[in-house]
Amino acid sequence: MNTTEVLTTFLDFYRERGHQRVTGGSLVPPAGDPVLFTTSGMHPLTPYLEGRPHPLGRRLVNVQRCLRTTDLDDVGDSTHLTVFEMLGSWSLGDYSGPQSLRWGYELLRDGFGIGPDRLHATVFGGDGQVGLDAESLQTWAELGVPVELTREDNWWSNGPTGPCGPDSEIFVWTGTPPPCGTPTTDRRWVEVWNHVMMRYRRHVDGSLERLTKSNVDTGMGLERLLTVLQDKRSGYECDVFEPWLRTVSGLWDLDEPSLRITCDHLRSAVVVIGDGIRPSNTGRGYVLRRLIRRTLTAMWRVDPSRTLADLPDEPVGHTVAHFGQDLDLAPVRHALLDEERRFRQLLHRGRPLVSRLRSAGPLSEEDISYLHETHGIPRELVVGGLLADD
Asked: What is the domain count for the chain?
């Protein structure tokens, strides 16, 4: 199934079961929200999960674009992305956790064609405060899906206080059949979907209060699901990344980690720019600046003459269209090239500074911190060798 088919299948399934679609919001949270970017599908729905009535009702579904800065340094491996999409469904005090699990099983089996023999679930096994999640365990037993019990791995909270509860994660076997082991003992079990049963509220003193009306919050990463359905090694090989991988690999000869960083960061930068952010030295603008400069660092390690001006419109246009952003490509290209120009100027200014420090011996951590804090020269430039003498 291609990306469009997966999205259509997911949304139609829940619409047929009375869910109203919430429009996937911007990466930029509403005014007053302290976080830099939307980090999960449930993030924009937090007030409603805490009890406020939603104008569209008690059954909701959406596709939300997200960005997690905590994963930025891990991008380049086979699993981490900077910007990704979450498929989500919600019951706001309506149906129960077992119903959510049954629908999840039905969609994976009948909608996405995943054989039941490739499924495994994990369920909260209880701790000192809350007992075993018997409802979820019984549901999976009735469906014939094997279960592994855990503690911390199957307890969800959005912070030290507030709504929380047990969750049940659904894994798909991605190795050679037949499946073996369990999700915690064999990495070939890949988690695709998490169903959270928000049954409690945790107070400041650590105590738990049972909620009068519990909610169900589910989240499934689109790119991870595509990896499973399209039988790929990573999300970078799926059709949603195809225009980027094909274009960038044809332009510049990069090793695999650098190719992934370049494709991910450029794609993410386009989405961030499309949501109204421009490079700067603080906040969201600094995250965008870092994305572009990490891209350029990966490109220039081999050949400093490479330029984003050579990037064709196709992958940029594909990303803008996929995320439904209403803007021309010219402002996107201008933001990228303006930041490239600034970065080249920084390299030019930084070389003599680094050269003077290196004349006294190898650079220390103190030297690298000084260059960053006093002159704004990022660590990756120094350790990456881009500030060596011409």
From this structure: 2
Interatomic CA distance for residues 263 and 277, integer angstroms:
19
59-67 vs 208-221, strand pairing mode: unpaired
Answer yes or no: is 41 within a domain: yes
Of 216, 333, 227, whose CA–CA distance to 270 is shortest?
333
Identify residue 91 by its one-letter amino acid code.
S
| Half-sphere exposure of residue 128: CA atoms within 13 angstroms, side-chain side | 2
Question: Roughly what angle, to the nearest 10 degrees, separates helices 283-300 and 329-358?
Answer: 70
Secondary structure class of 172 (helix, strand, coil): strand
Q: Are residues 286 and 145 in the same domain?
A: no
Q: What is the mean pLDDT of residues 22-44?
A: 86
pLDDT value, residue 24? 67
Angle between helices 313-322 and 256-274 (to 10 degrees): 60
Instruction: Report if residue 218 sits inside a domain.
Output: yes
pTM above 0.90, yes or no: yes
CB 98 within 8 Å of CB 168: no
Between the CA of residue 22 and those of 26, 57, 63, 282, what are the distances in Å?
12, 10, 8, 31
pLDDT digits (tens, 9 = 90+) for 214-253: 999 999 999 999 999 999 999 999 999 999 999 999 999 9
Residue 192 is encoded by which pair of tokens?
């695709």
* CATH number of the domain that residue 113 is part of: 3.30.930.10
Domain hosting 172: range is 3-234
Encode pLDDT of 352-390 as tens digits: 988 889 888 888 999 989 988 888 777 777 776 667 655
Beta strands in the chain (DSSP E): 20-21, 59-67, 83-92, 119-124, 147-150, 155-157, 162-173, 189-202, 208-221
Tell me the C-alpha distance between 261 and 268, whole Å. Answer: 10
